[in-house]
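WARN no homologs supplied; continuing
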Amino acid sequence: MSRLLVAGLSALLLAACSEAPATDPVDTPIVIADPGSTPPAMSTALTAPLPDFFNCLRENNGVVVAAHRGGPAIGFPENAIETMQYGFERGIRVFEIDVAESRDGVLFLHHDDQFGRTVDATGYNSDTDWATIAGYRLKDIDGEVTSFHPPKLTDALIWARNTGAIVELDRKKTTSFANIWAAVLAAGAEGNAILISYSDEEAAEIARVAPGAMMTASAFGGRDIERLEGLGVDRSRVIAWTGTREPDPAAYARLLAESVEPAFGTLGRPGERLDDQYWADDDGSEYQRLVDDGVVLIATDEPYKVAEWLTADDEGWTSCATP
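OK structure emitted
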């Protein structure tokens, strides 16, 4: 992608960090770019309401690339604000991140039940207090320990609000949708957050405890959408998740006929995920085929490659990000 860094972004990020409570033992630094790199240009930050933004993408054959676990890279850990900033400067606008809760009730970004794989520490999330977690250091995708620390969800939400990025929030079992949505409201990030559901029951719970929230919910056509509506879900706030196994153009067509945006994931276990298959020949045409078939959100473990390959994400964001 080719975009120009919005003037004043660094100041906004510093202001966001300053909103963290003064009692925090660790101030997480925001890295603007890796040494020697030149950030490409970027488009206007998101200011349109999320339902309107996704409606516009659907109507204009646009797409967004969602970076799984925040888009980890060499030197940049998963579920870190610094990593999202790194991706944002490279044209990625949507970041899927994982939300856990500490023993003393602080929401923070972490995927696993235990520390170790991505954090230079041991123990369970639910058994560890935030003051301890805040001092841990994150590992990058090669397992190298970095200078970055696990961030609070609040700080990630403020970052998204200030940059105009979108964060997809994946609830881990140590916390609740109600707690996550309370943090979203407190950060003023309702226009930047999407809640992820994995069942009809979870979708119904989100509709109940987070009215007005945009969500992903499993759906493949009109009957699924009607079932969700029967559970209190507003179809205008649904992005239909269609899985990670095989593209389903017929389902995409059915969803588009219902004015619902289809989403598909090429992510997964290394060696088995579609990302690996699609890039085996260094050709990303399969992603363009998804766009041509109507997919509006592509969740991927290769966000940098996909974002570089596609043009529909640039064009869609430029056309739809502002009212």
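The CA atoms of residues 19 and 155 lie 8 Å apart.
OK
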